[in-house]
Design brief:
Largest sheet: 4 strands, mixed
Helix content: 40-55%
Oligomer: single chain
Shape: globular
Strand order of the largest sheet: 2-1-3-4
Distance between the termini: 38 Å
Strand content: 5-15%
Number of strands: 4
Number of helices: 11
Order of helices and strands: EHEHEEHHHHHHHHH
Length: 212
Amino acid sequence: MTYTLYGAAGSGSVPVEAALTLIGAPYQVIEAVTWEGDAERDKVAAVNPMRQIPALITPHGETLTESAAILIWLTEQHPEAVLAPEPGDPRRAQFLRWMSFIPASIYSMFWVRDVPSRLGGDDPAAQAAITARTADRIAECWGVMDSQITPGRWLLGDELTVLDLYVAVASRWTPRRERFAEVAPKMTPVVRRVDALPELRAFWAERFPFED
């Protein structure tokens, strides 16, 4: 009953890998560094026509894509891990809200930012503007989220959820943690707690090593 995950170190597959690690479910990763060219993207094409990661193959052979959907689904399949508020829990609405907000408002910016020529064409000035504006937009969205939540020890209170894992990983991408700390001062202590989880120490070192 092993999961198969198409992913890459430092990518959007990392929160899924972290969740599987905390759940204790056996899984294997097929490394597909999709930003390095067509050969890597083609590794994923058979399971995700978008040729994007993450893509999860369940033990029963079903394919799931989209990191937020995978994370939510895993919490439903493994309720014993207590990594999400259950339906009916007063925190459930905000859990779903922010699990949707991150891919819609933040993660989506990287499709443009990572290859600015997708929208800017071959114009260097346009590409530079896109790079700067997407970084500003990402920071703005983190600030909006920070203004709308009141964390406890974790983002939704006293229990760790996959939302904490998702934010901890995404906040390490551009414009990176220094700016994240400026615009999201309430969430910053939470992501640092996720960084320091003993259960994930070896995992972080292997899949998303910390940098000064």
